Amino acid sequence: MATNKVVDLRSDTVTKPSDAMRAAMAAAEVDDDVRSADPTARRFQEAMAAIMGKEAALFVPSGTMGNLVSVLAHCDVRGSEVILGDGSHIHLCENGGISTIGGVHPKTVRNNADGTMDIDRIVAAIRPPGGGLYYPTTRLICLENTHGNSGGKCLSVEYTDKVGEIAKSHGLKLHIDGARIFNASVALGVPVDRLVKAADSVSVCLSKGLGAPVGSVIVGSKAFIDKAKILRKTLGGGMRQVGVLCAAAHVAVRDTVGKLADDHRKAKALAEGLNKIEQFTVDSASVETNMVFMDIVDSRISSAKLCQVLGTHNVLANPRSPKSVRLVLHYQISDTDVQYAVTCFKKAVEELLKGSTEFEHLVDTTTKNSYGH
Ligand SMILES: *Cc1c(COP(=O)(O)O)cnc(C)c1O
């Protein structure tokens, strides 16, 4: 039965730490990690390096810092340029930090609906060598897997390998913004270390679908991580008894990766439920992981009003555009919650179409950006 519980579908960042995470935090053995002395952080970083198939790993406070530190480590010469998707999180949603803080110039390539960039467009974006007087120097290519702005689409291992080959053959590095790389790995059925084999660095969010309260981890070669550690300190991300956070993250990786397939199944169920509502369309075939992008096909309903009315039923969702809504699943949303949410979407539509004056005060605020933040 529907409870008074809030069904929060705004993001997979909203999970609360599990009892096991809190217990691990309480029991964590800690020391000063700026001196590399925190045993819990060391153990966690070693475990993550092994899982991701790289030499070393570094815990960072956020995905944003993970990406920034990674890009800066690869582009430590002024006048560096990075090739990245025009719909990528690094380009759209990280305050332009690679430019404003790192002095790195972005060269965007169009993201296709599946989150890829066409290979020939990537190649065409690489600056000719010896461009001397006019051109910045291409040093890095960034991919995003899963690709958030395309609804959590997975980049295949074949595609990733191909981009890796291109990077290598041009003397460039490859960074993967793998905020949701475990979702991709699970959905594709490809071990995560294999999926990122071609990458020189990967940034992995622990606080998205994995459910840790705080943090991301970056992985790469030992030399890359040594550089990244200095950059992390420069940016104020050197944290002292950080084992408290790493302990929770370690539990998250241990306990939640196995639940991601279930999130993907629930996302499909949500998409199918919503698709049965006349005023909405969802391409359920496009739901590959834990995200659902839903379009409103009734001219009388805006996403802003719909989300506000849903809120009165304790279902939280974010408009993605004036006529679409982004919904994100995570392990703390149950099958019952999904069914309850579908019922509430139906009710919200009925209430909005009743023509009742009850909702006239609601404003049609638009979203701030295409990521729906
Ligand atoms: C969330 C996210 C980030 C940034 O992570 P924060 O921890 O929120 O800074 C980077 N890339 C993608 C694709 C994300 O979804």
From TrEMBL:
The lineage of its organism: Eukaryota, Viridiplantae, Streptophyta, Embryophyta, Tracheophyta. Pfam families: Beta_elim_lyase. Pathway: Amino-acid degradation; L-threonine degradation via aldolase pathway; acetaldehyde and glycine from L-threonine: step 1/1. Keywords: Lyase, Pyridoxal phosphate. It catalyses: L-threonine = acetaldehyde + glycine; L-allo-threonine = acetaldehyde + glycine. This is low-specificity L-threonine aldolase. Its EC number is 4.1.2.48. PANTHER family: L-ALLO-THREONINE ALDOLASE (PTHR48097:SF16), L-THREONINE ALDOLASE-RELATED (PTHR48097). The keyword Signal does not apply. The modification N6-(pyridoxal phosphate)lysine is found at residue 208. One of its GO terms (cellular component) is cytosol. GO terms for biological process: glycine biosynthetic process; L-threonine catabolic process. Belongs to the threonine aldolase family. Its cofactor is pyridoxal 5'-phosphate. It comes from Miscanthus lutarioriparius. Residues 8-295 form the Aromatic amino acid beta-eliminating lyase/threonine aldolase domain. Threonine aldolase involved in threonine degradation to glycine. May play a role in the removal of L-allo-threonine. One of its GO terms (molecular function) is L-allo-threonine aldolase activity. Gene3D superfamilies: Aspartate Aminotransferase, domain 1 (3.90.1150.10), Type I PLP-dependent aspartate aminotransferase-like (Major domain) (3.40.640.10).
